[in-house]
Specification:
Layout lengths: L5 H9 L26 H6 L9 H24 L14 H15 L6 H16 L4 H22 L7 H61 L4
């Protein structure tokens, strides 16, 4: 007689006789995606439909509790990083920057990929570019916050008293948070690239104008020495 593993038995009892953990085999590993023309590319490719974001009411209060500590950790690390400390200026600005970070994450957790949010996310990238924060440091900082958030979310699903269905929800929250961060990062980085492209265009135009001016000056000087 083959006995079921105790953990799986508990998960089935907690979920009305069904396992809390989905099993995949054969065709079940293939997801059927239907493109909704009313959704943004971010919503389609990152999985941010209304069904995917249904768990947001449970995720928001947890992140509201975790974010202040994570942001504090980030800025302590920034203060110890030689390349970053000058970019963020005096310590007097740090509380305002921390609050701006928390405000942005709070807005991101609304999962509204509308024009206002897209403009806000792109403005973050523009602001970072303006103060001289390179895209690689932006990604590293974002990676630090996301990693800490995922670790702390995982801790919410640990412990003997945590039901298996709760662990499944924590996994769903981690997946949703990762998707939201990727969408947010994509929008911010797109503004970085736009700013860099515009700068390159200005440099090229200024160079061409300088060459035209110099060529005109040379032609004028040559013409002064010619007499009929």
């Amino acid at each position: 007689m083959v006995r079921a593993k105790p953990f799986l038995m508990i998960s089935r009892l907690a979920c009305g006789g069904k396992s809390a953990f989905p099993s995949y085999n054969g065709s079940e590993t293939t997801m059927n995606h239907r493109v909704d023309p009313h959704q943004t590319p971010q919503q389609i490719f990152y999985g941010l439909s209304s069904a995917d974001t249904a768990i947001l009411p449970e995720l928001r209060p947890i992140m509201a509790r975790l974010l202040p500590g994570i942001i504090d950790e980030l800025y302590r690390l920034i203060g110890q990083t030689t390349d970053l400390a000058p970019v963020f200026g005096s310590h007097d600005k740090i509380p305002r920057l921390k609050q701006a970070q928390i405000n942005h994450w709070t807005r991101m957790l609304d999962a509204r990929m509308d024009a206002d949010y897209i403009a806000s996310a792109r403005a973050v990238g523009q602001a970072h570019h303006r103060i001289g924060l390179s895209a690689d440091w932006y990604i590293r900082g974002y990676g630090f916050v996301l990693r800490r958030a995922l670790i702390l979310l995982a801790a919410e699903g640990h412990g003997l008293r945590v039901l298996p269905r709760r662990r499944v929800k924590i996994g769903q929250m981690q997946s949703l948070l990762s998707a939201l961060c990727l969408a947010d990062m994509e929008l911010a980085l797109s503004s970085y690239w736009d700013a860099l492209t515009n700068e390159q265009h200005r440099i090229v135009e200024a160079t061409l104008e300088r060459i035209d001016t110099q060529a005109s000056d040379v032609a004028g000087e040559s013409g002064e020495g010619i007499t009929c």
